[in-house]
Records
---
Amino acid sequence: MSSAPITRDRITAAHELIRLHVRRTPIVEAEGADFGLDPCHLILKLELLQHSGSFKARGAFTNLLTRAVPAAGVVAASGGNHGAAVAFAAMKLEKPARVFVPTVASPEKIERIRGYGADLVVTGERYADALAASEAWAKESGALRIHAYDQVETLLGQGTVGLEFEEQAPNLDTLLVAVGGGGLIGGVAAWYSGRIKIIGVEPETAPTLALALEAGHPVDSPAGGIAADSLAPKRVGELMFPIAQTHVESVLLVSDSAIQQAQEALWGILRIVAEPGGAAAFAALLSGRYQPKPGERVGVLVCGGNTSVVDFSNGAKTQPSNLRHKSRITQLQNQTEEPPCPSTNVSKL
């Protein structure tokens, strides 16, 4: 693992390296009033539209394009999204891949990993179990380990989300970022380096960064809840922690019900179908855990969309099964006059 720091120059170099392999995901602008919030301007970056369904493709390609891949290929442990990203990148770069996921991984994510041609192993109840199994396989096979968050190259790749977001929305005041192991918020916070306010958002059932900041170092934390397949590692990464200590202003905890309400609102107002982990950052706004100042420009990373709630097998009658318009969405819509329509060569960084 490289020991060099996560700098803006290195993130820029990573972006130049991977930009032909990843999508420049769009932003959507809305007003707080669209969601029944006090006046503020919202800018959502839709990383759920990234290859493999989440921002994780950025870190996966950065790893595969900057590190020597042995004949045994690569191995990854994942709650689902990282595994899908590694499988996708390995498929595109014609490298063998084996991915270990826990039993909490969603069917959609498992299907994606298999569809990209990786050798899939489902083992253990949580990410930590899959990680232990992947490390044993790496030792046995000689495969290159690609860590989901505690890897320099992973952090550099995820930092390109911040680079793009600043180019698309240069006047942000605040950015809300969901936290699992911390690869995304670590890379993004390293990019902005204190120039805007970075707020982490975690499920109440998996407060990994909140507990680490309280303790002064990464510690084991509970791992459960509606977003357990993406935001519930055993602890945050060692590499991202000093970045968070320096550049993350605070961490907010949101309930499972708040995350589900955020999913419903994103669907009802913007027709965005986000997975629970992808909607967590927005849940901090909708629940009132984060209250913007009047006129504040708030960025939100909608970081993943690998969910099986959408089923088109019934044709035109189908709508997302657990995102049907409930009273909350009807109320929000009534408050809005016009809702928005919605190379394989190894390089050094």
---
Amino acid sequence: MQVRWLQCSYPKNNPEVFKTDNIVPLVKLKTSPAMISIEPNDLLLFARVVEDGSFTRAGERLGLPKSTVSRRLAGLEAQLGERLMLRTTRKLTLTDFGHNVLEHARQVMSEVQAAAELAQHRQAEPSGQLRISIPNDFANVVLGQLLADFTVKYPRIALQVDVSPRRVDLISENFDLAIRMGTLDDDAAIAARRLAVFSSSLYASPLYLRQHGTPHEPGDLMRHAALQLAAPQREARPWLLTREHATWQDTPPCRTTANSPELLLRLARAGAGITAVADHFVEPYVASGELKPVLPDWCLPPIEAWAVFPGRRLMPARTRAFLDALDAEFSAPRCQAARARAAQSRQERIEAARLEKREA
């Protein structure tokens, strides 16, 4: 297999002019004995000659001698096996084959220009208004410090944060980015990046368990009060529990539904019922004794956190900066350590529950 690398760069003083002598790996063509090997730079050169209508003018814009331009186009025609243009002393006339090849050459030129614009875009200092939507609990518990640091690092970005629990329409409401939890809708206009995965469990206060008893099997939950996270249709979500190869799914009697995990945690700590919540967020309350795990050897489905944004071709620098900040936050040692502690604590509770059952 042969590989051909595109050679192209833009002078700083004129981004519309490109030279073909600076190597920037961008495009590679695979060839086989049954395929023609084409130099992408020659396609760019061909498109520029047609645009300028002259070998001389194209050579001047590209910083190449007219003889080099002529030689390379002649080589391209030899590779393709047909004439691309008819040349006289006064004008250039495209052949039918030349018209067809020109469409592909212009596509190559468009991709090169897009790559150069992207590079210039990323190097520019991010500025302007950045509209983001984040669930209230996630913003307060997880991203509060990140938001503060971001505004200090990028003073030219005006941050506008929506903390409503609803799923905003990124396109029609002109949002740059949103944080979403759980399953995403299938939307071709939206791109997504997974930020983190959180394990989750059932929890209740010691007061509630003393008053109402401790469930020992998932079926026991049907005799308890559930504090449920509301679904988009405002209905209670069924709980799906798994343990090795066993599965249980049902909707326990629901005393309260809310679209705020933080509120459900407060109600659970006050003895109002049993709630399902991400282990990462409940660790401080378990350590303080305000909450206890329920059915610790049974697992709820993990909760995924996503950053979603319009799937446009060129992302604004301000959105890119915030997305990079999110990536850095969730890959930071302190965040990884917190998730590791939660996972270790959960595993210890599972082992303790299994040991208790064996001894019983």
---
Amino acid sequence: MLPRCCGAIAGLLCVALIPVTAYLAAQPATAASVPRSSLAPLQLDGGSVALDGPWRFHLGDDPVWASPTFDDSSWERISADKPWGAQGHPNTEGFGWYRIHVSFQPNAPAAIALLVPQVDDAYEVYWNGSLIGVFGKLPPHLNLWRSQRPGSFTLGPPEPGVLAVRVWKDAFGSFDSGLQGGFEVPPMIGSPPAIDSALGVWNYNWLVGQQLNFALNSLYGLVAIVCLIVWFRDRRLWLVLWMAGYAFSHAVVPLFGDGVLPVTTGMAGAVSTPFFSLGDVSLLFLLAWLLDVRNDARLMNVIRWAAIVDMSASFLDAFTGIGFAMPNPAPWQWTDALMTVPVCLLEMIPFYIIAVAIKRRARLDWTRWMVALVALLTQVLFFSVYTFEQGSRFTHWTLGNRIAAPLFTVFGSPVTVNNISSTLLLIALAYAVYRYASENTRHQLAMEQELESARAVQQVLIPADIPAVPGFKIDSVYLPAGEVGGDFFQIIPASAGGLLVVIGDVSGKGMPAAMTVSLLVGTVRTLAHFTERPGEILAAMNQRMLARSQGGFTTCLALRVDPDGTFTAANAGHIPPYLGGKELAIEPGLPLGLEPNTRYPESRFQLGPGTQLTLLSDGVIEARNTQRELFGFERAASLTTQPAEKLAQAAQTFGQEDDITVLTLTLVAAEALHA
């Protein structure tokens, strides 16, 4: 019986203690029993110590939490050596407060200062309820700095107090792990000289850690400047322009995107994102040029559309970061995540370009295949890091971070796989572009020398002085175009008086055309000793051209003009002559160099005293203005009664595209001749 009684009594006592326990739990704790987050009195001795905690921490925001009298005993305890996302609050955005109670030993320095290292993303520092420093601006006037630099603040005399830090963690991006937020390194407290020294050490270490990146950025910038200078000197070198775009992108993006320059997050995104896309687009065109696949129409259409989509998406993505500061950033976060889909797809296009080059078995030198190999490696690394970092706060994939992690250090600068691959790609691209530009320059010089030689040959074959033929007034105008064309003419006095006139136009440009002209002019001068019949001259020229030329054709018009104005004409596909402003109906034959047995019928006409006979080349008819309108036959015919100079100048002013040749022949009246 006794045990059962004891059990009943114990049960009654437990029931009776329940309200007592609840009452005691509801009573506020006394000041002496508050387990505040405080440190033992700090021993400074003119130096500094790290406030590694534990700190009291609470999510949310209330201005009262800055007060030194606020009771933070119910807040959780966390350390300051890693973000709050890694201490039980993953994927947490918004406000968070840190508080710690600090006291000093009697030998503390006369003044105390505080060094706050990187904090994600903006913060305010309160000492005993007074605001003593800020980094960035917190909502509702949010303004974040891209670079997370340490800040130093003066606390004043070494009095016991409460240090409170109000932190704002901005909305997560698509590549964030969700483990960020708040302190990443513990703050330091000490004398002002000690804090200044610690700040100097941090800045020095930061510079040492960035020296490799600075060197690479400077190299990219130098390559970009050199390429731009080369391109401005020769606008035809598109490959050099794409190299400048690629290098310039890699020089600019780290300055803004990696926080080298003191710019806001919004500006960093607005500038770096389009330049990042510029680098992608430039690489696509670089690979197309260097791997010699730019003649693939389908591939080039893909590249052009990819460039349009990439640049458009970059400008849209550049401003999604602005929405992160909105009261409801979720729609902007989804937009940011969705924008990564086309970006990831576009990053695969270099693989497509390389695959096309391999499939076509392009005959390229080793430097271009080296570019393809290094570009393939770089894109694989970038695509892996970029893809696995996307949505990592949900997938918890760490492969991207492991690939991007430093492999080793060189003079204090961390070296990553991306550093190595990017440097190799820059060297391979620069060398390949240099070789391409050098070869192209040599080719251009050879072409220019050939054109100069052709122009010299043509100038020799165009009569500088028109021979004086009794009874005739002869004028000629020859206006060469930018390229060496195939216009030619010859005026040869006839043995029995009168003259032989031959005008023609060889198809093609440059030295081949000039050599054909030389062949034909030599033929005409030789034939003039044996025959003066236009049809026979054209037939012989046709045979000579078929025997010696390699393709191509020539239009030609030959005339034999007698002293009394009677003239005989034969035409091999050339523009008919104009007599008194009207086109003569001459039976045409095929151009020279097409058929071996072509006959060239002759037609006879009469040139009256004072009447002008005008011969011209197709450069007059085919002149085009800026609206691509032809000068045409009608305009030409209306001016064929004018001096040769006026007709030629009219066509040239209208819009010359080919050589312009105009000959005019007028029979001088007997009285004018004797006068």
---
Amino acid sequence: MTTQSCNSPRYSIKEPRNLSPRIKWLRDYYFQGNNRRWNNEFTGFTTGTPWDIQYQEGNYYIVPETYTFFPTFTGAFQQASFKVDLPEGFWEWSLPERQAWFVREAMVYYLPHEVLPGDLIAGGRFNIQTSKCFTQQEAKEYSKAVYGKKGARAAELWFHNHGYGNAGVTSGHLIPDYPRILREGWKSVHEELNRRLLSISQREYAGKKGQQLKAMLVAATMARDVAFEYSNVCTQLAEKETDSTRKGELLKMAEILRRVPWEPAQNFWEALQSLWITHMLVMSEENYPGPGVSFGRADQYLYPFWKKSIEEGMQRETGKDLLKCFSIHCNFAYDAMIRTGGNQGITAGFGQLITLSGMGKGGVDLSNDLTYAMLEVIDDMSPLLEPKPNVRLHRHSPDILLDKVVDMIASSQGSPFLLNFDERSIAGMLREAKMAGVEKLINADNVFDYAPVGCLENTMCGNDRSGTVDINLNLLKAVEHALTGGYDLVPWTDPMTGKQEPARRMGADTGDATKFATWAEFWNAYVTQTRGIIKRAADLYDWTDRIRAKYIRTPYLSCMVRGCIDKALDINEGGPELSFVTVEAVTYATTVDSLLAVKHLVFDKKECTLQELIQALKDNWKGHEVLQARALNKAPKYGRDDDQADDLGKKVMDLWAGESWKYRTSVTGKQYRPGMLSWNYWVGDGYILPASPNGRPKGQFLSNAICPCAGADINGPTANVNSVGKVMGGKDPAGKGDWEGYLSVLPNGASHTMTFSPSLLRDPEHKSKFTAFLRSYTENGGSALQVNMIDADILRDAQKNPDAYRHLLVRVTGYNAYFTSIGRELQNEIIARESHRM
């Protein structure tokens, strides 16, 4: 009899393959985590003033689990930061000039530059927390605006604690104009800045325009000088190297780093090196390790370099090794929290997304040899989190691409990538252009060059800085307020003191719901309350946006976002040609199903009164189990291709989406727009929001993005998909949609996660059926699909034996995560998801 080792998985899981000794060593070294002698943990830098501030907590207002640690993080970086020597006259410079110089100085002269053994791409350390370079007066004003009793932090905590969700300006989540850097080099950007500076008047030169352009000039040399430092390191390593092959590689790297990213890239190796140095410095400047800083359509703009190098003799496997080195560098972003985060900081919350395939103008498929090489690299390196791949599919995607996609899904746990669907996505982008009045910037001639950031949030490339995840609003709060006339259903209790907050009206006075005689009265109350919570969220976001615009500048990133140089405005001040902020709706299906339950139980079937239903919710359904069962099992549900349910779902969608377009930020002029990405809020906020009319008790997770409630989609995957497509807009029968008959009210995209049984892809016949399913999704589904191809028994075994499944990946919502690193509640939610069969 044999016994299973406690460190051996009972079930087989995806393992990396086709790794050269170089790549295997680098990958294994990465997974040693905090046992490594070297890491990329945050390093702090200070001006040395007693009022100095490094940690910018506003970046994390959308991450409620960090709220408790804000004072600790702020104080820790103040104490642990290294002092940077300041030049004479530093405090006489403008704030953007101070911040530009300080980040550049830290990255070029203070942060160590190292190259790992065998690595072919330079650029190891980049996670920093730098001084905000405030004068004493600026620090006082900033502290009052953020930390004061009536500051942003207090407002954020109130908003979240009362179940509205979260809102705040967040870094990352954009696609810089990387193709320009590869084509022209930073030298070209520097020359443009000089020309722009010479074009302004003396008065403008002495004012804010001149200050910003001078700051950008300083920042534009940072990538060149960091690359030079790495070139010197490579030269020094080569002098000591005894292996002739490695010596040659190091000398070649030194040569490359003397050229790029200052000069245009000439081949694939140079292009990847230029891209990485340029990209990592965005994360450095924003003091934000990667979330949403995405690469865009990399297989398109890198392909000319790939093709040229292949024609000049580069072996395909050599090119793939370069890509694998690049991938490993992306993952070192997680080192930021290597000693403070769960699973050594590897939490899947970052999302340096890379877009592959997709259509071009005229609907032509743009897949190329590099597309397939990148897919092979992803497959070989999996399970690995970064960069997060997004494969764009459309009506004319070739069979060979679909076959590769399905084969990769079949061999993976979770999903190896997110699937974006061009037709629905493009319809949303064109709707956005019309609603925002930017049709000159987003139109039928260029919309094909959109790409997702972070997880699945659709943006344009190189000129678009949009807060794609900055407002996460619980739509269910409006149902609660409709039931109570604007009060919290259950008064908030301070968890530290146990003191209960006095009841006070927070929403509109929509009347005593127990006296409503018709469904129309309740619906009208819900409409009014929805408008109220959206305005509250918009106002809170605007508050945080004003603070960042005044105090936080990122001139390096601004150099790579079109519009900033022309306007002489920082990206955080409204410089980009396109500036949006997304209202991401959370709890959508829970909201729809709750409204359906109210209509069914109270007004249609008269199985209870509103007073009885409200009391059941206050009691968290305890003592009301029969009514709860009716809500769960008898009321209609979204996700079943039920026209009655989906029609109400469409009304809910049109209401909040339409309301979102009514707002712009007061200083930066960002246009609010709708989208759906719930990240992991639907789990945590289930403990904040009270019981809901659809039968859910407080403490149970809410619905995820545009997905039906867990267990509600009992009519199979096609019905699930049809419901999603309908509420997003469906198709215009006359073919007059936003694009080629397709309609979409969600330009930022919508996260749709579906779980399937692994037996679905057990043989060629079933793989063919799944391919057909993906093609039908293009016609009838939403904008983005995540597939979990996993057996619940594997997940349960992983809960019992986490050490044996450290690398088990699952799809959460728009991103993969290592299953054993996420919380128990989220693990249970994933296990509870319906597993579809075909």
